[in-house]
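Morning run. Coffee first, then this:
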Amino acid sequence: MRTWRRTGSGDDVRICSNLESYECQLLTSMIESICELLTERADSAPRDELSAMTGIDTGHTRGPEDVTLGRLLPDFHRPDHEPELTVASIASDLNGGLRSVNEPRIIDAKLDAAQVVLATLPRDGGDVRLTEREADGWLAALTDVRLALGAMLGIDDDQGRLPPDHPHAAHRDIYDWLSVVQGLLVEALMADEWTESDWDVPE
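And here it is:
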């Protein structure tokens, strides 16, 4: 892909790039996989009478057993961050309550961000032109893809490049590519000035 560029001003600001067909297919596949995981998690949440009466969704009280979902939906409170809470049940109840109330909304936000990418991604490759709000959705979705890929493969930012013959080498390359795409998008969103030199995405 080309770098991201910021064009226009005010309400006409657009964040632009160009993606190859295989890049679009790769992003689509990964984002759709995350959507499936999150949707299955939401659909498996217990339903109670209060939720039915109030229309307020409640979610699971326990964290996901799946490693990937656990990275996407971590606990809200960690006992080791507050040493004075030494009773495990207190931390468990706190996490359960927070998760039940907040997890449905977090899943909805993640799915919304994913849909922004799918809706603005040219499936066969081509130009991408995002509003700032859509670019924010891309950032959120790319974060989730990187978290999921890192969890599935046991890789992280500090691992460095892998030898070419390593079974996860290709996946690490994808992870690094996602990091670059996300970083360049952040830079474009933060840019106050722009030029059109060497940029040929049509208006």
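The two ends are 18 Å apart (CA to CA). Good start to the day.
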